[in-house]
Amino acid sequence: MERPNAWKNYTPEDIEKLNDLSARYRAFLDGGKTERECVKETIALAEAKGYRDLAAIVKAGEKLKAGDKVYSNCMGKAIMLFHIGKKPLETGMNIIGAHIDSPRMDVKQNPLYEDTDIAYLDTHYYGGIKKYQWVTIPLALHGVVAKKDGTVIDVVIGEDENDPVMCVSDLLIHLSREQMTKPAATVIEGEMLNLIVGGRPIEEEEGGEEGDGEKKPDKDAVKANVLKLLKEKYDFEEEDFLSAEIEVVPAGKARDLGLDRSMILGYGHDDRVCAFPSVDAILSLEETPETTCCCILADKEEIGSVGATGMRAHYFENAVAELLAASGSYCELKLRRALTASRMLSCDVSAGFDPNFAAAFEKKNVAYLGRGVCYNKFTGSGGKSGSNDANAEFIARLRGIMDDNNVAYQFAELGKVDQGGGGTIAYICALYGMEVIDSGVAVLSMHAPMEVINKADLYEAKKAYLAFMKNA
Ligand code: MN
Ligand code: MN
Fold it and tell me: What is the DSSP string of 148-209?
């Protein structure tokens, strides 16, 4: 049952395609460090391939037919692409779904303060992180500021090489005798994730100091200087933090990893390493598919798929209802049938075997870097708690599709039984009664600021997702 390393079977043509996909994936990572940015990038890629906005089609009262390509944008944070097939929608869809939110730190609503001549932004982490990994690395700010007048300003600071970056400090080793005895969970605690954003007091304005001639000590002059800069660059008042969504993410680009350039080191592989090949696969469908194909990119997976843009919200179901209506055949029963009769790959990352931490894995049932796309029959923790558990019959069909299409794949669990666990969006889509299985790419250092994937697994994921959409 041991799977060969996928690189061994590649032809020069494979290597060329793999390199092309990897380069485009790295560009996607660099341009998409937040869910909002990933949605924008996806819309640009989709429109270039002839996709149109479903909302505009509905508004114009246009009809949809086989071969049409549409996208549905959910609040700029989640998106669905549909390529309408020849068969009626109620015979089901072939769906691939990934998530585009990644672990990070979010700037709080009342964030800016000064302490002993240093200005900070207070943050609240998002998703599961080892907090000690997020100190002393260059960090960038990505997000939006929504102003009361209705304008929404995009913020990106720390990515251009001439930009400044931010960071969180750590205690110097010389004074860390006590800190070094703490468990890793408490070495850096949540409230210590304070981002350094300034260290220079504001210059006094001409004629600013009036009155008795005695100079008052400047209160919060460093903070005042930060606010002045924000005002100049973004017309941003301190109160505007209340309606801002600013995410703190590692600054800089994804890089090829290893002397052989076989891997990629970057922020947010979980889950953009599945989101990107999903998008690339559906956009590479040249002909009208038999079955309607759908690619879902969801938000909020890392915090339980909650909220209006998380997979538990109803945007997917609503979009399918709109498709039926625009195809001139909406009824509630057809909608139910379309959802229930569908098949889905829930595309999310899996834990890659790490020889440095071999004790956490069970070697027969773990994903190995470079051995192809990874299927998880189930995820969850403990006794499979919280998992979707894919049906054997569905898995058998998938094996056939993967073998027929020469896809390198492996079956895995997250790690040893009772070591921990995790979930995906699979169980939520399974609520409709559709067949769902988890399928993704193995990652090292998952949820760290910089994660590792192997390019062969990215390449096999794209092949798998395309084969699934054409043949499931
Ligand atoms: Mn994930
Ligand atoms: Mn995750």
Answer: TTS-EEEEEES-STTS--BB-----GGG-TTGGGS-HHHHS-GGG-EEEEE-SPPPPPTT-S
